[in-house]
From TrEMBL:
Single GO biological process annotation from the record: methylation
Keyword annotations of the record: Methyltransferase, Transferase
Classification via Gene3D superfamilies: Vaccinia Virus protein VP39 (3.40.50.150)
Gene Ontology terms for molecular function: methyltransferase activity
Name of protein: Methyltransferase domain-containing protein
Superkingdom assignment: Bacteria
SUPFAM superfamilies cross-referenced by the UniProt entry: S-adenosyl-L-methionine-dependent methyltransferases (SSF53335)
Domain Methyltransferase: start-end pairs: 20-105
Length: 156
């Protein structure tokens, strides 16, 4: 499945290359990206989620499943033509996500937000994504209903 923030905006994807799915869970987005021709690194701390993703992929090529604790940073170097981070929020990781983008690379990020929901330590403050990724060129951003999203591109 496409990342939620990319639905209706699939044309923004580069033609191909390398993709990183951060906190991939069961890998639905990673498998979708692989189906679009990307070589995907799918990273999660959960071996259960990774195993479910690999089983769903059923041996299809294109996804490397990587068990890794993101609180220690990203597992490897970019650059990536697409970086997806959907429903995993760690502001300390934001600079690494931006730095992992290749020139012209696309970031697609969705985090829990306190806009339209309660506050708390797990939710982004208003404007958090735009401030964190201000060096990128935004294509779409939204806050509301307890989520914040940003689709933005590194300058070529
Ligand atoms: C809400 S799920 C989102 C999964 C997927 N991105 C999606 O949109 O369906 C959050 C994911 O973050 C992963 N996660 C939580 N803490 C992590 C960490 N420190 N390092 C890597 N992954 C982590 C969980 O295992 C889980 O798969």
């Amino acid at each position: 499945m496409p990342p939620d923030a990319l639905r209706g905006r699939e044309h923004l994807l580069p033609a191909g290359g390398r993709a990183l799915d951060v906190a991939c869970g069961r890998g639905g987005v990673a498998v979708w990206l692989a189906g679009r021709g990307f070589a995907v690194d799918a990273v999660d701390v959960s071996p259960v989620g990774l195993a479910a993703g690999a089983a769903a992929a059923d041996g299809a090529a294109g996804v490397t499943w990587i068990a890794h604790d993101l609180t220690t940073g990203l597992p490897g170097a970019g650059p990536y033509d697409v970086v997806v981070c959907q429903r995993y929020r760690d502001p300390a990781l934001y600079p690494a996500l931006a730095a992992a983008l290749a020139p012209g690379g696309l970031l697609v990020i969705t985090v829990l937000s306190e806009v339209g929901d309660s506050g708390g330590p797990f939710r982004a403050r208003p404007g958090e994504l735009v401030a964190a990724f201000g060096d990128l060129v935004p294509h779409a951003m939204a806050e509301g209903g307890g989520e914040a999203t940003l689709v933005a591109r590194r300058r070529a």
